[in-house]
Every structure is written in structure tokens, then in C-alpha cells.
Design a protein that fits this description.
8-stranded antiparallel β-sheet
């Protein structure tokens, strides 16, 4: 009887240690990987304000680098432009597989030409970073368009 009791206690201990406690010693089963088997980078959802803040910081840094103007090359006209920032459009948006973006307005020094410039942002190490900049419109004339089905507005 004593051998059976010792065997039962030993078996119960092994069952608890290997079967119930999970793959990491000292952890409770319920606390092991909440919500997933193998943790990875959690998908972060960014708000419109997060997007605008990241864009504003990027634009301000580029203006400082450009000695007071936002410098961008226009591949269509093959001109190097020096522009003044006007505004970020509402709402900001997201296209699945491409990233977050918002349209902005910049103008030439004489104010005669308005450039609608799109800034594309994507998460990198938990922060939004501008990954692409494109001239979308010149004086309201679009250079490219989007399919409405792929655009998601961000609040």
C-alpha cells in the first residue's frame, strides 16, 4: 500500500509539473500566453490624431532641413520645389497593405500653385514613420486616383 501511495503521489507530481504547468516552469497555465500560443508584435491601431502628429513632426523636420521650406522633387515637371505648408486634410485614411496616409496642402512662394501631397505612414518599432511622399494633385488636377473600396477613414 505504501508503494502505491508513493507511486500515486509521484505520478500526480509529474502530471502537475509537465501536464498542467505548461511549457515554462513556474508559470500558471492561465497566465502562460494570454490570447495566443506564441507571442509576437501586437497589432497597434493608430488614431487620426496619432497619424497627424507623426505627419506634423515629419513635415516640421523637413522644413527645418530645408531652411524654412519643404523641399520636394516633382518628377513630372522635373523641378525641385520649395513649398510652404498650409494644412493636413481631414479625414486621414488607411489602405490595407499600403499603410496610413493623409493629404496635405503646400503652396509655392507666390501662392499661385497649390500642391496636394500625400504622406504614407507605416508602423516601425511601435511608432508611425513616413515611408513615402507623393504629389497627388497640382491645383486640384489629380496625378493618380484611388479605388474607393480600398480606403478606410480613420477617426
Amino acid at each position: 500500500m505504501k508503494k502505491i501511495l508513493i507511486w500515486a503521489l509521484g505520478f500526480s507530481f509529474l502530471c502537475f509539473a509537465y501536464g498542467c504547468a505548461g511549457e515554462h516552469p513556474g508559470e500558471e497555465v492561465a497566465e502562460e500566453h494570454p490570447g495566443e500560443e506564441h507571442p509576437g508584435e501586437e497589432a497597434v491601431q493608430f488614431s487620426g490624431e496619432n497619424i497627424k502628429t507623426a505627419m506634423s513632426a515629419h513635415i516640421e523636420a523637413k522644413i527645418q532641413e530645408g531652411s524654412g521650406s519643404f523641399k520636394i522633387h516633382d518628377p513630372e515637371s522635373d523641378q525641385n520645389l520649395e513649398l510652404s505648408f498650409v494644412q493636413i486634410h481631414d479625414p486621414v485614411r488607411k489602405i490595407e497593405g499600403r499603410g496610413y496616409f493623409a493629404c496635405t496642402d503646400f503652396k509655392t512662394a507666390d501662392g499661385k500653385t497649390i500642391y496636394d501631397i500625400d504622406f504614407w505612414l507605416n508602423p516601425q518599432e511601435g511608432e508611425l514613420v513616413v515611408t513615402d511622399t507623393q504629389i497627388h494633385k497640382v491645383n486640384q488636377n489629380p496625378r493618380y486616383t484611388f479605388q474607393e473600396g480600398e480606403i478606410v477613414e480613420i477617426q
